[in-house]
Amino acid sequence: MLERRLIALIQEKAVRACPDTALEAGIGDDCAVITPSPGLQQAVTTDTFVESVHFDLDYFEPAHLGGRLAAVNLSDLAAVGAKPRWAFLNLAVPAGLSDAFWDEFAGALVSRLSNFGCCLAGGDTVASPDLLYLTLTLAGEIVPGRWLKRGTARPGDIIYCSGWLGEAAAGLRILKHEKSRAAVFRAGSSLKRGNSALPWSIVNHLVRRHLEPEPRVRLGIALAESGLATAGVDVSDGLATDLAHICRQSRVRAEIHEDALPVSDQMAAACLALKLDSVELVLSGGEDFELLWTVAEENEKRLSDLAAGILGRKPFRIGRILPGGGVYLLTSKGSEEVTFQGYEHGR
Fold first, then answer.
1. At which of 107, 142, 177 does a domain end?
2. Which residue, 21, 98, 217, 301, has most beta carbons within 10 Å?
3. Residues 251 and 188 reside in one and the same domain
4. Do 200 and 270 belong together in one domain?
5. pLDDT (tens digit per residue) in 182-205
6. Helix, coil or strand: residue 200
């Protein structure tokens, strides 16, 4: 697709989905012109997806790709408690991708953004000689002094997680093993490994947790505005690594309990059938995009009840902050350091 046609396609979808009067000029102009909300600060984040590193078109539909690109950036805003407002999309495009591909991609991207009140306000497109590169930058708004930081956890704080961990990593293992989305999405069929079979309903749940993550935007905003959470982060690289960011910046130690790790029945069944280690997936799998936060013990119930009202269930209490450094897993055999065991580029 020619650049001007691609821009026109994205612009049409973005304008239709964006009623924001604060955006005075957007796609089609040299710059976006935005009127910021009085008294608020801006939070800005960006993520890049590289084909064959972050996604594989053998099992990512265009709609999955657009929705996921939005979701991972929205999760970064959720991690600090920012309200999403504006987005900027940069594309490096190889030859051979159809008009239908871009229509589905842009539709899903804009839809996911607009669901959270975020407008696509601009970007850039260039040609790529080989692979597809996608970069999305998001800007959100926060109340000064009421946003979640990584460096403010304190000894005695309790550690909470918003949802199940390891499911997205299990879904990715399934996709990579089957080599293609078509091989996975055979409705009504089970996934067989030797003498074990994993029911279709579980396969579908885990795969969609990878392809269609749900950012905890509303929860992040509520945690920040409550003033009760002492620190926060989203789980993008695995529990061990993301909790280690809090520990390093706060200069504290985290102890998490193996028997308190949030492992769903679906993931437990998948690990049994596919011979996967559930603890490893929770600690180092990543890409669940749940929220982690710490809270002083005297505020624990109030914040847990607040989170439960948004989630529709209780969040998971997984450990405690102590003096020292590092992340430690407490098991029946003792204590094991698990600091920075998640995904890291260049490793």
1. 142
2. 217
3. yes
4. yes
5. 555 554 566 666 556 788 889 989
6. helix
